[in-house]
Design goal:
alpha/beta; Nucleotidyltransferase, domain 5; 6-stranded mixed beta sheet; globular; binds 5'-O-[(R)-(carboxyoxy)(hydroxy)phosphoryl]adenosine; binds zinc ion
């Protein structure tokens, strides 16, 4: 019964999307941020409330999955109230409910998915499932209102490092990815071994500005794709060796040198991909897109290659529900993404390679 109503409403929204405003309530809980947003027409943020659990997980040096799920559960109701109040709307004004169903921590995802399913069922609204990685890319539709695909995207987050060809609003083809760890994961590990706390990215970014790139951590990188495991191990080994020898570690130098290799390997391949796919711009997405060194280096390389570089403001780089609302809207207007109440979490959800690869 619900499914028939939801399908009928979804089809009507697809038809009406050209002639009227569509409001989507979006829910994101894939890792340690509980976020709910109200997004208009995939381009305008009416509210984007983010309740971060960083302070809770800090003392463990990283996200504890079970603790994260429990805290999502505790936060969701208040975050929902604040999202509606800030947007000056009520649940009855919503046209659809969107939710991240993967990739991410399975328990955390399930909390968001079940919350979204309950809302969709109670309000008799269509439920739209969103891939978190695609959501990161769609953050750029919010920050650059005239951005239209196709373009090449560099996705750099705690869980992903990938070059993607965003063919249209729905299809994102994987060009290449990391062969081992993600870049954000490496930032977090390096910060941990240096005793800099969690999350590592922002503090390593900051300290790098005071350091020099004098330490050689790696000699080469894979021809295809990216690699962070060897680099991470090299930093850990360096720190242990220095400690064993009783030598003082210059933390800013370690940060700057690590960052030199972490970011360095992204630049050339990104420019090459943009040229190969005849993209006029390069779009950055994900938490590590907040990194000042990456922004500066890629900006320089793009300028040299005659490409425009786009990235969202920091609040839309890291996990947030507004990007999920944007991604859901562009799926909806293409007639895609309608989920049933059977929807479950897909913790390993990924992007697919371009056909033929
Ligand atoms: O996209 P995100 O919020 O969550 C995932 O989907 O993974 O990304 C979180 C990652 C963390 O690893 C964090 O250390 C990193 O983004 N990050 C940064 C910076 N800000 C956040 N990494 C480098 N420099 C930053 N300024
Ligand atoms: Zn993310």
């Amino acid at each position: 019964m619900y499914q028939d109503i939801a399908k009928e409403k979804f089809d009507r929204l697809v038809r009406e999307s050209k002639s009227r405003d569509i409001l989507i309530l979006a829910i994101e809980s894939s890792c340690d941020e509980t976020s709910i947003a109200v997004v208009k027409n995939g381009r305008e943020i009416l509210s984007n409330i983010i309740s971060s659990q960083i302070d809770i997980h800090k003392r463990f040096g990283g996200v504890v999955p079970e603790v994260a799920s429990r805290n999502h559960l505790l936060a969701l109701n208040n975050v929902l109230t604040e999202a509606l109040t800030t947007a000056k709307v009520s649940l009855r004004d919503m046209d659809a409910i969107a939710v991240t169903y993967g990739a991410g921590l399975v328990g955390s995802l399930l909390v968001g998915v079940n919350f979204a399913k309950s809302l969709a069922f109670a309000l008799e609204l269509p439920l739209i499932k969103v891939n978190h990685i695609k959501g990161h890319i769609s953050a750029n539709y919010l920050s650059t209102p005239d951005l239209v695909p196709p373009f090449v995207s560099l996705v750099v987050s705690g869980g992903h490092t990938a070059l993607v060809y965003t063919r249209n609003y729905v299809h994102n083809d994987l060009i290449c990815t990391t062969i081992d760890d993600a870049i954000g994961e490496a930032y977090d590990k390096v910060a941990k071994v240096l005793g800099l706390g969690y999350p590592g990215g922002p503090v390593v970014d900051k300290l790098s500005k005071e350091g020099s790139t004098s330490i050689e951590f790696v000699k080469s990188f894979p021809k295809d794709g990216f690699s962070y495991s060897g680099l991470k191990t090299a930093v850990i080994n360096y720190v242990h060796k220095m400690n064993q020898a009783g030598k003082e570690i210059n933390i800013p130098d370690v940060c700057a040198s690590f960052q030199y290799y972490a970011v360095g390997q992204l630049i050339e391949k990104t420019i090459r991909a943009a040229k190969k796919y005849r993209s006029k711009c390069v779009v950055m997405a994900g938490g590590v897109a907040a990194n000042s060194y990456l922004r500066a280096e890629l900006s320089r390389a793009c300028e040299k290659a005659g490409l425009k570089l786009l990235y969202p403001p920091i609040v839309l780089c890291t996990d947030n529900a507004a990007m999920i609302g944007a991604e859901a809207y562009f799926n909806l207007i293409s007639g895609e993404g309608l989920a049933s109440l059977d929807l479950s979490a897909a913790s390993n959800l990924n992007l697919k390679y371009c056909s033929g690869k």
